[in-house]
Fold Pyridoxal-dependent decarboxylase.
Amino acid sequence: MRERRLPDVQRLFPSENGNQQSRQMMMRFFEQILTGVDGLKNPDDVNLRGEKDRTDRFYNNLIQQSAIPSESMPMEEVNSELLALLHNHPYHTKYFLTNILPMASIPGIVGMLAAFMVNGNNLWDVYGPAGAEAEVKVISMMSKLIGYDAMKSGGYTTWGGQGAVFSGLRIAIAKFAPEALLKGVPDNLYAFCSDAAHYSLFKSVEATGIGTDKLIRVRTKADSSMDVNDLKLKMEEVIALGGIPVYIVATTGTTDAMGIDDLEMIQATAGKVAAQFGLLRPHIHADSALGGFFAFFQDYDFTANPLEFKTEVLQAIQAIHSRMKHLDLADSLCFDFQKLGQTPYLTSLFLVKEAADLTLMDLHPDETPYVGHRGYGQYHTGYTLECSRMASSISIYSALLAFGIQGYQQLLAQFVEVNLAFREALRLEIPEAVIVNADNPGIITLFRLYPEGGSRFEEEVSGACSLSEIDRNNKFNEILFEILGKQRERIFFGDTKKHLLVPTKEGSFTALYATKIFVISPYTEVKHVPEIVQYLKTFVSQVFEKYAEASTISGR
């Protein structure tokens, strides 16, 4: 009987000694993936080539058919399977115009590859010295950019803007209720954010045990920024009932309308209210996951304009900068580098103005017997919610070095320029499309349609419309959502079902729906705008045709 040879599992690992044969083998596998992806690219569509019949039974079939092979599969075949996963996957061509799903840049990918090659645990510098070193560097870099004192600030990479909002809330709870880590969260702590804020805080108050009924939504203005007068009133109402405001999330770049809260006014108002009642000022977190990257213009000379931006682009960036220049007033903030930082998922950076705040969340040495708190190693992040942390800081570091301040300025300016061109073309070619975030000149355009044509946006915002009227207008816009969604292989637009919460005639509040154009691909240029708008125009016409047909049938 012939002896069966066991597979050589060592060949599935990078070499121990850096030998050329192993390196060439790895390069061959990388080349197969790169070549395979390039073969799937189609710059005139928004998806990679390949068919995927994602019917109702698609995932159920996967469950039934998937099983671990009994024997090792050759890597060439594994790569073929991996490439099959990418068939019909959204890809960031010039026609990718939806939400915050950017292309991972070459320096971001290379940085992640460097991190993977050593696979360190960023929890402790003994286990992950490269990630720890990169993390300290990027914390310093971004602290200096926004105006924090880098010798006092701190932070760490975390799981998205959600992780940053959650960490800020943990700090806030510890500031106001130091015994909460032992005895649980008191039932009189409250958090505040605007109606336009991301749902991260909703999830965070739920997860920390504060409870979603202790999350107070502050009214927003027409530009999607927080109404600070309403914040003052709501803080006073909470305090009058025995509550304690501990946390305020100021959104500095909403994901739908690019609304920017006034940090200076929020800090001043929160401080005055707190002082009036003899309380600590609430911890203020700037959710700058998206908009914070406009901090790269902090020291830009708008008069000399060294990068020679067009006048309208320069004015738009100045308008954004004027609202973003007070980021240093926040007690903590966030940069989602996997958004406008152009790095792969997941690469978010949580910053705190005072590194000492992190110790409020730290564990006792007895609770971390495996790592840290030894006579060796100087960087231990026991205060993070994660016990194991990937060294995503290396990818961030790579991108910061490769792009530099001017590289990010040029990229952001391109996004702004294209967005301005979209707005101009929409007004000229599709006057029925009413831009509802015209006060926010960033990289996003939201527009809304009305069955009768024209605009009723001002009426809706002022409370002059009934709930049924707004509901009808929302359903009208939803027709366009569905049409564009089914045609997204060609051009991928976005949408939102919660642009603003507006008052109704009946005294209630309801949300406005809007279609979204989100400029996020480096390959989308001004010259592509006419084609994209003409494409959109066809489907807007279809919405009105469908509505007219339905109205005729119903006898309206």
